[in-house]
Amino acid sequence: MRRLNELGHETLELTPEDAEKLIVSEQGHYFVVDEATRTLLKEVSLEPGQRIALIPIARGG
Amino acid sequence: MSDYEEVRVLPTGVYRVRYKQLTPGQIKALRTRTQKKLQVLRMKRNRLISELYEIEAAMEKVQGFLEENQSPEIDGYMQRWESMKAEAEKRAEAYLRDFLGEEGYAKFRKAGFLELQDTLGETWRIYADGTAMRWENGNFRRVCVIRQRELPLPDHIVSVVQTIREQPERLMNVRR
Fold it and tell me: Looking at the structure, do residues B85 and B165 belong to the same domain, yes or no?
């Protein structure tokens, strides 16, 4: 899992379950994108070996 | 004895001088007033001295803090941080290139902005400095988007593009 943040693409190797937990806890802050297909994942259901990116959702001021 | 007055001519001018005769009671009162005045001045001096000590102590503390901040250890940390930021920028730039595709990335870097339409049919522009604008009433108007603290600029651009593509309503009602 790649998370775009101030550390510059924090890379995490997680089990699908742990990744799903993390995604749920960050819901509303990040878009979850499949790295291979570049598509937005609407549902949090991951496969082993799946590479995803968490892209911060932009906020207006 | 009574009060006495005289005119004196001095190099600096002509003066009328009055001498007031003092009674023993007035002399005592004058002494008391003078002693009080001296006391007030002593207190003022003591306050200033203690303030001076406080200032000196504060200066020493600040000086110490400054010296600690200039240690080679901290300089090393800052250098590592800067190089980490530079690496982060590089990775973010590579990701932006990947995210936009070679052609889209080249167009973006050449034009200095990226133009896209959202799902609501609105036209947006995202500039290379991260500024976002939306077409409205014949003009591109600036939209205020908060850049996440320390997020590399290319990542901010990815974030804004992705948000416009997926959830443009989040940025619809914010204008600078």
Answer: yes
